[in-house]
Write a structure and sequence with these properties.
35% of the residues lie in helices and 16% in strands.
Amino acid sequence: MSAKPQANSTSRTHRRQFVFSDAAIDIPDGWHSIRFGNFHLHCCPWLNVTTVMDASGQQWALLGHAFQVAGASSNDPAIAISRSASSDVPALVITWSGRWLLLSCSAVITDAASLLGVYILEDDRSVFISGSLALLSRLAPSSVRDTRILGWYGINWFPGPLSKLSGVRKLLPDQIYNPATRQVSFFDRLTAVPTGTGVRNAASEISAGIAQVFRSMGRQEDHNSIILALTGGLDSRTTFSVLQSSGVPFSTLTLEHPRISKADMTLPPRISAVYGISHRYVTSNKLLRDRLEEYDLHIHGSVVDADRELYARGSFDELDSRSWLIRSGCWEIGRKYFYRKLSGLRLEEIVDRPERLMARFNSYFRNGASADSLREWARWRLTHAIAVPWQDLFYRDQRLGCWSASIEQSLDLLDPVSIHPVNCDYFYGIMLGMDKTTDRDGASLQHEIIALCLPEVAQIPINPPDGHYFVLKSRLLKIAAILAGESGNLVRSLRHK
């Protein structure tokens, strides 16, 4: 591929996006095209793309950034593909971390949680595959089927495997799509791995794998700095511990936003100072309406989160295109994140009455589109059962594969590359293999990683109480969001009756 465009380009909409299709289509100016038999891959020059031929002679494209974490003769995923038969390629990805997509004329495979999400649109003659709903709506206009208002609460994402657009489907993490035959097949990629000698062995395995990811990042020629988004919470603290112990240079960053806690304001500089790590606290700037519109256009209105305002306020602008922005999502898959909220529900009930699941998230007034998608998701889970609790799969498929994936797509607008190093099937398998009788909240693994890598950090409190002002502020903001969002959804539901 050609060199990346200059940083701070004024054309950001559809940045790092792609379209894979067997139809002749108009593509944005400056995009590249690669032929795959009857298909063409059209991609933004900001998108990292590696093409490779496997040992059977099939051509593959690896989009985004993948990092090998364990058990391979080569740390380069592209080299591993070149040495493998076509039928063996899917098994390679189990030990890949990062945010990536692997595709050929016969297989489209997402990363572990589909953080580089894939939408599929089929018509009588052609197939269109993209990570962008905005591009698909432009190439083949579809009506909006899910008009629900997203807010800071509840199911604040459009659930898969359907999407907010009629006729457009989202690929779940354990689905492989064949563009040539238009068939979806089950990809059994997640297995709970017994931890053997216990939590310390699991902590050692995961910390070693993530450290390998950071070292791979440090060797990249086109990215020369690592920036960790650090808060006062457990997840970024765990990532900080592994990163510091890996010996790879980095700095830390905290971004101010309206819902920031006292711990997020005070603990990151304190933790960084212990190890002489440079820390930046970026204060909130004036919100620019044109950047809000640019964000919403790029993401096609698929997510509302802190990053939307942060982008509109220019909070990321000082980060250059040669940086890795390290984020610490995905740890919750090992912490029973939705167990309490989903307690007492069965998949069969969700198929019969998906509104029961939505009510658990304070989502009451809505059209039936999200409910239909949740019903279809539950049917897929019942048909393709694996030895992992369905609540964990709900977290992976929906919270990560839909909500987090939309956030990550929005961050494609930035110059630096956003990566969640924990996003790996191998890591998820270790987390889900923890003994549920001794690890009741699922957090002991992360505490063990911190103690193993940086014992001194284990002594600093995690998310200490904020005080009455911050607690009251947080509760009032949540109540206001629920009232505003659900009132709007009620009005919309009544209009459509």
